[in-house]
């Protein structure tokens, strides 16, 4: 079963100084962090902030290709967490046929925001990831991290809130 989530915002991890995209379950207070790279969070932040550049960015190009190929992005699903790496799938419909495409979660999220389609996380990934930071991360315990993420408010997210 997949759980619908929304991008709650993004912030910098105070321990690793890496960007974290914070996803929130739409039906509960559960949150799930995904550590991403600087370029990846920039692609997400550009869409969150509704910034428009002089030329299409890669994710704008992907959205335009999907539309111009008479396809529709129905949903994205973060399907797996293996060896501290998340995996995602784009679910598209083209000419009445379902097409799935492997994607990095950061790309899937950036594209979902541009296409205004729902984002889902498999229950297994949500259960594992909301409590497990990357193994390379030192610092607070899983419980401390969970409490910190679930307790975020708009001021904590600052200019990065949704």
UniProtKB/TrEMBL annotation:
Entries under InterPro entries matching the protein: BFN_sf, Bi_nuclease_dom
SUPFAM superfamilies: Hypothetical protein TM0160
Gene3D superfamilies linked to this entry: Bifunctional nuclease domain
Boundaries of every BFN domain copy: 2-133
Top-rank taxon, per record: Bacteria
PANTHER family xrefs: VON HIPPEL-LINDAU DISEASE TUMOR SUPPRESSOR (PTHR15160:SF1), VON HIPPEL-LINDAU PROTEIN (PTHR15160)
Protein name: Bifunctional nuclease family protein
